[in-house]
Amino acid sequence: MSGRFKVLQFNMQYGQPWDDTYPDTAPIRIRGTVDEIRAHNADIVMLQELEQTLSGGVQAQPPPHYTRLRKEFPAYDGYFSYPKPDERELPFGIGLAILSKTPLREHVCMNLPSPPVEFDFLGEKKTPTDRLLIGATTTIHGREVRLLNTHLLAFFMLKSSSELHLDQRKLVEDQLRRSTEVPTLLTGDFNVSKHQSLIEQFANAGYRTVQSTEPTWRRRPYVLDHIFYNRWLRPVSHTVKPTPASDHHTLSAEFEFVE
């Protein structure tokens, strides 16, 4: 329908497909990621964990999976960023991207500091690295739309909670409060196991999530992934879809503008 557009939110776990028996050792298969993204035919694609950190926190340049996606989807404009380099980075997913069928402009990249919460990893004491928020503006059906994408620290994996360490969430909230007069979307893997507090926090900034009941993660029944929107947008439909291409489900939503 004219005036509507579709958004896809997907933590792609650097192209590692889900394996029920050996979920942490399945070989990377970026083809499955490409096929999953293509199947949605979304106007806006918001991605987390595009790349896998190399030994010593090394970030591959150019980022191979983002480079592959740009070749596979030449009709989309794109914006990608790693977080700031850190030798403490563990060998998991890293990097954020926005893909858009309409040109992107006014790019933003914002560091989200992590607190020095100690945790054990393979018998060693570690502290978490910083996280990231990226943004861009585009024009859809003649309307300016602000796009924000983030991936927050999983405090529940560190036997803590983002409710005790609110700094990252508050920095994201600040960005939302600065974007109240233009249609704005915030997507991401928010890594909040008790998601109601996050929903209430962002509701106070004028944003709602398209859904908060269906889990979006295979490893635990948590709603980690969200698409938040403000009063200038109305969700027409949404779908949580399990995919073998990642340990996260995809979350997609169709929007229309509010006059």
Automatic annotation (TrEMBL):
GO terms for molecular function: 5'-tyrosyl-DNA phosphodiesterase activity; endonuclease activity; metal ion binding; single-stranded DNA binding. Signal peptide: none annotated. GO terms for cellular component: cytoplasm. It comes from the Bacteria. Its cofactor is Mn(2+); Mg(2+). Keywords: DNA damage, DNA repair, Endonuclease, Hydrolase, Magnesium, Metal-binding, Nuclease. Residues 8-248 form the Endonuclease/exonuclease/phosphatase domain. GO terms for biological process: double-strand break repair. This is Endonuclease. The lineage of its organism: Bacteria, Pseudomonadati, Verrucomicrobiota, Opitutia, Opitutales.
